[in-house]
TrEMBL record:
Residues spanning the membrane: 43-64, 84-106
Highest taxon above the source species: Bacteria
GO molecular function: peptidase activity
Signal peptide as annotated in the record: none
Name this protein carries in UniProt: Regulator of protease activity HflC, stomatin/prohibitin superfamily
Length: 329
């Protein structure tokens, strides 16, 4: 399993946050306290555009002064002859300098998009995060990495797990999440997406082991309560992802099945349990009807019954009603 590591190039040692634990109960390494998202250096794109325009204009003017630009094309005069004076070396030095300025201005132009940010580094060290949208300018001396911070959802493949009774299960989970702290997500782990997926599998294995998938004998909590199981999974996964800058909104079980090797046997047990529950419900209704009938006869004084006759009446009514209401196997 991928675990949080020291941020590359930061020179900061890993620290363990008191009270932070992974899904298996062990201490969860936390990102360095200094590794927190902060605004990165950038300028509005129009400033770089003005600089690029001015540098280009200066280059054209110096080329004209140097006599490089043609004065006529097809007999048409385009430019007046350049004035004399000025050393050629000085003109070409100015051209090279302005060309470097223009290249520097053009090389930093980029576009910020909704739902994504630029994470900036220099020699592997974190320099900040740019969340601005539209045309912006970022120094070409900084390395850029685009990071997706939009709300995302991921449906897992069927995850193998075992319930409290030791019965093998397969569970699929729908996870809704996003990157909240880009510095931690980029540097606290090698691959935050892989780390998230593996922690989801660990959380599912832990949460599923707390309760049985089905309770055929009573009304104890089971894994069929999707809301309870989803809340438990959300808390487990959110606690594990917080140190690496990921915010988890919900983890919902969307599919819970028995493993193929036990599915047929457990399906028969489910059907038998449902049949038994239905028969108990029908029998309870029959007994309630018999009791109400006998009580009505007695209260109205229709007949006088001794204990033997009362028992016989109860038996006959129970047999008659059970024959017509209880399902046949």
């Amino acid at each position: 399993m991928t675990t949080p590591s020291t941020a590359a190039g930061t020179g900061l040692p890993e620290q363990t946050r008191p009270g932070a634990h992974s899904t298996d109960g062990s201490a969860l390494p936390a990102a360095p306290a200094e590794l927190v998202e902060r605004p990165g250096p950038c300028l509005p794109g129009w400033t770089a555009g003005l600089t690029l325009t001015a540098a280009t204009g200066g280059i054209v003017w110096l080329l004209w002064r140097a006599g490089v630009l043609p004065a006529e094309i097809d007999g048409r005069t385009l430019l007046p002859p350049p004035p004399g004076g000025g050393s050629a070396s000085g003109l070409w030095s100015g051209i090279l300098l302005l060309a470097a300025v223009a290249a520097f201005a053009a090389g930093g132009l980029t576009r910020g998009r909704n739902g994504s940010v630029w994470v900036l580094t220099r020699h592997g060290a974190y320099q900040g995060t740019v969340r601005r949208t539209g045309l912006i300018w970022i120094s070409p001396l900084l390395t850029r990495r685009r990071l997706d911070v939009a709300l995302r959802h991921w449906r897992s493949r069927p995850i193998d797990a075992v319930d409290a009774n030791g019965t093998p299960l397969q569970i699929s989970v729908l996870l809704v999440w996003r990157v909240r702290d880009t510095a931690k997500a980029a540097f606290a782990v090698d691959d935050y997406d892989r780390f998230l997926r593996e922690q989801v599998e660990a959380a599912v294995a832990l949460a599923v082991s707390r309760h049985p998938a089905d309770d055929f004998r009573g009304a104890a909590p089971t894994l069929r309560d999707s809301e309870r199981l989803g809340d438990h999974l959300t808390r487990l996964i959110a606690a594990d992802q917080r140190p690496v800058g990921i915010e988890v909104f919900s983890a919902t079980p969307v599919r819970l099945d028995y493993a193929p090797e036990v599915a047929a046997a457990m399906r028969r047990a489910q059907i038998a349990a449902l049949d038994a529950k239905h028969r108990r419900a029908v029998l309870d209704d029959v007994l309630a009807t018999v009791a109400e009938t006998v009580r009505g006869i007695t209260e109205r004084g229709l007949v006088q019954l001794d204990d033997y006759e009362r028992k016989a009446l109860v038996r006959d009514l129970t047999v008659a009603l059970s024959t017509t209401t209880l399902p046949k196997k």
